Amino acid sequence: MEVLSRKSLLAWLILLQLAENETDSQTLTKAIPNELSLFSSTSSLKTQVNNLLISLELKNYVTKFFYGRSPLFSLTAKGESFLKQPLNSWQMTLERQMISLERMLEACLNLQPPSKKINLNHDESLFLAQNVQSKPVLSSLSLIELEERKKQLGPKEHSISLVELQKVFKKTYGWICSSPTFNQYMMTLIEENYLQLDWQTEKNNHKVRVVAIDEKGEEAIPDLSSNAEKKLHTTLTLFQEVQDLFQRIRAKRLSLHSKWN
């Protein structure tokens, strides 16, 4: 089963278009943004569509033929079968990712960690990580989580290692971000004097980097959260559009199934 990602969704959209009509790559590139605004009509999309058509042809999901000089593509029986497979799984995955987005949005609106947590595995979080604008959201949520730790543990005890802070994101929001990317964003917050960086010695005498929120970081939370809130609303709207498309396709199939049975 294909994991939901931007690439697998785009390949699925290509097959969906070909289920309606045989067509060429240029027409596909123009049609896909009309189906989902998640994909904008750019030269990058054109390249992605062309590369995916090659891949889909190798898998025997599509077949290429020529009408004059123009190569056209049509859906094979194998491609039609694949088109039906991931829909239920992707819908469930997307629902959980939208809950994660709602948890992030709740934190940004209330300026405190969400009342409920959600934990996604790597496959479940892939599409989420590909579409959330990481920097503003991670920056805001990091400061919110650290401010809450400061309230709970006190100014001198709330320091946390970058590794443990990343685990907090995983357990609270289902967010799985690569360590280099996460550390890069944290270093930006340190450079802006929103966070204090220190070294802490663990029981095995191993030293780890720990961070604590600074007064300037606490003051920055409302503005950063407002910016993150806008990004999250945009992503939620795009995800709802994908979910609506999945529901329309399912409803159409159920209607056809009832008609023939």
Please specify the SSE layout and strand pairing.
Blueprint: H1 6-20, H2 25-35, H3 43-58, E1 62-67, E2 70-75, H4 77-84, H5 87-110, H6 122-131, H7 134-153, E3 160-161, H8 162-173, H9 179-191, E4 195-201, E5 207-213, H10 215-260
Antiparallel strand pairs: 1-2, 3-5, 4-5
Can you tell me about this structure?
This protein folds into two domains: 6-85, Arc Repressor Mutant, subunit A; 89-240, Arc Repressor Mutant, subunit A (Orthogonal Bundle), CATH 1.10.10.10. 67% of the residues lie in helices and 11% in strands. It contains ten helices and five strands; from the N terminus they run αααββααααβααββα. The longest helix is centred in the C-terminal third of the chain and has 46 residues, at 215-260. With 261 residues, it is mainly α.
Query: Total helix count?
Result: 10
CATH class of the largest domain: Mainly Alpha
User: For the CA atoms, what is the radius of gyration?
Assistant: 23 Å
Which architecture name of the largest domain does CATH use?
Answer: Orthogonal Bundle
Class from helix and strand fractions: mainly alpha
- Structurally, the number of domains stands at 2
Low-confidence stretches: 256-261
CATH topology of the largest domain, anyone?
A: Arc Repressor Mutant, subunit A
What does the largest sheet look like?
3 strands, antiparallel
Mean pLDDT: 90
- N/C terminus separation: 28 Å
Strand order within the widest beta sheet: 3-5-4
InterPro entries: WH_DNA-bd_sf (IPR036390)
